[in-house]
């Protein structure tokens, strides 16, 4: 009986750990964005609007050459990954509230 109880506790703890999610900053300094507007979203070391995403595991920051900065969460992207699309650099990270910077580690594009 004790073995069964230990097994059930182990099984329960593994189920709880699955899908923990991530906390990310979520904003844009553009009023035209679908994201919540925050004029301070473009600040380096941003510490504003925080959202817990239970089913997502990655935060991101997008920096546009025109000065628009957006931050939120995603289901894809790996820690330290960078993507480039015309005038936008997007970087991904996997720690809670890790998307407070401007993708400085991304190489190959001016941001």
From TrEMBL:
Superkingdom field: Eukaryota
Signal sequence interval, chain numbering: 1-21
UniProt entry tagged with the keyword Signal: yes
Keywords carried by this UniProt record: Signal
Key word Signal present: yes
Protein name: Protein sleepless
